[in-house]
Write a structure and sequence with these properties.
Radius of gyration: 21 Å
Shape: globular
Order of helices and strands: HHHHHHHH
Distance between the termini: 68 Å
Number of helices: 8
Strand content: under 5%
Helix content: 55-70%
Structural class: mainly alpha
Length: 144
């Protein structure tokens, strides 16, 4: 009887594991949850507008080519979100070296991104997943 019970429990656990793997493989990509290419472009356009209104961080972008910034950020977010893009820009270290960005300024830009995603109607879960994927870049951006 124990062998039969163990066999039944093993089969049940195996089938549950198989079901959860199937549902994970069918889960939408973060790219899709962000709205695909159009959604990313809307987020980045909103992000640029938020930066433009933020006197704390705007000076860091004064010499930026806005069109290139838009293209590279869109490409970067697309790649990070498992979209069909390859990031072709400079590394975060190359972009931010010498800028002397501190914690408060970094956080202000993150807040701008969060507002941009809110304004684009991105669900909180998708926002959190994108932010979690971007978080490891923090150490490449803050250079005091």
């Amino acid at each position: 009887m124990r062998i039969l019970t163990s066999l039944i429990l093993s089969l049940m656990l195996l089938s549950c594991s198989s079901l959860s793997q199937d549902s994970r493989s069918q889960a939408p990509l973060l790219y899709d949850e962000l709205g695909g290419q159009q959604g990313l472009e809307r987020i980045v356009d909103n992000f640029i507008m938020e930066i433009a209104r933020n006197e704390r961080v705007l000076p860091f972008f004064a010499d930026s080519n806005v069109e290139r910034f838009r293209d590279m950020v869109t490409e970067h977010f697309c790649m990070i979100a498992d979209g069909p893009c390859e990031y072709t820009g400079d590394t975060m270290i190359q972009v931010h070296t010498g800028m002397q960005i501190n914690e408060a300024e970094f956080n202000a830009v993150v807040e701008n991104l969060m507002t941009a995603m809110d304004d684009a109607g991105v669900p909180i879960g998708a926002q959190n997943r994108l932010l979690a994927r971007l978080a490891p870049l923090r150490s490449e951006i803050i250079h005091l």
